Amino acid sequence: MFLAACATGTPGVDGTPDAKPGGGKDAGGEPTDAATADASSPPIDASPPPPAGTQLLLTEVVLTPSTGEYIEIANPTAQTVDLSTYYVSDAGSYFRLPAGAPTVDSNDFIAKFPAGATLAPGAVATIALDTAANFQTVYGVAPTYSLADGTITSVAANGLATLTNAGELVVLFQWAGQSDLVSDVDLVLAGVPSVANGIVDKSAVSLDGPDADATPSAYSADARTITAQPTAPGAGKSTKRIALETGHETQAGGGNGITGDDETSEQTSATWDTTYTAPTPGAVPAGLF
Questions:
Q1: Is 12's pLDDT higher than 90?
Q2: What is the pLDDT of residues 121-153, one digit of tens each?
Q3: Phi–psi pair at 25, nearest 5 degrees
């Protein structure tokens, strides 16, 4: 879990940390071991090193119960990220957005983060599919955004937005609203999705977005070697990211990812857990960064 840095040491009566016992010099005027150690120690208010990562990540997914369904993202980078051009979706047709809001299957959605939304380094954001009130009833905490409440904007939907209990594609992508193509940021096949709930091959699909020219652009080839999980998390359980993507994408260039990598080539068997434990909304999964 990501924890904020705090001062260390035992506070004195005036609220300042007391000196460590054993410091100072000995009878011969030489520094004692404790004093020498203190001289090389970092300041007591030193911050921990920044998270290690290059882009936002999906970090947790809950497929059931309906009132507790959520998608969580985290910022493993050292910079605050503007979320206003980011989207989350469970629809395989998400990549067609530049040509106009695509038709999505029943209960699927594409949602856009609101203008002004940001995510600080080391922070997480939870996107509840149901209302914030129902989410709080389930977990005792409020979500960051609620699709049902409209605090994250639905740009395409077909009925009530829910995640399929057996499994679902979940994708985080970026589009600034002008280019012909979207950029994949992260995706996972949570549980065991059916073909209808999985990845749609966008390799070589050509689109002309709302940019100034009338020349279409084509997506690069998707490896689509990412695999579904062996089972689905049951009710009251979640699947969580346990490792960063670094070293776990078989196509490290030439893809449709935001950094040029192929997000459909991630070896999620190494980066996502399948032991399924209780959800931890609002907290980075333990040991991730």
A1: no
A2: 999 999 999 999 999 999 999 999 999 999 999
A3: -115, 155
Q: Which segments of the chain are extended strands (E)?
A: 57-62, 70-74, 81-82, 86-89, 109-112, 118-119, 124-128, 145-146, 153-157, 167-174, 183-191, 206-207, 217-218, 239-240
Helix (H) or strand (E) holding 39: helix 33-40
Distance CA(289)–CA(276), nearest Å, equals: 19
Query: Residue 51: how many CB atoms within 10 A of its CB?
Result: 18
Q: How confident is the model at residue 225 (pLDDT cuts 50, 70, 90)?
A: very high
Which pair of structure tokens corresponds to residue 175? 């589009």
Q: What is the mean pLDDT of residues 158-166?
A: 97
Angle of CA points 182, 173, 113, to nearest 5°:
115
Residue 133: φ, ψ to 5°: -65, -45
Q: How many CB atoms lie within 10 A of CB 251?
A: 19
The residue to which tokens 């346990």 are assigned: 242
Average pLDDT, the chain: 86
Task: Give the burial class of 194: count Cβ atoms within 10 A of its Cβ; 0-12 exposed, 13-18 middle, 19 or more buried.
Answer: exposed
Distance CA 164, CA 53 (A): 30
| Structure tokens that stand for 132 in this block | 């914030």
- Residue 206 near residue 214 (C-beta atoms within 8 A): no
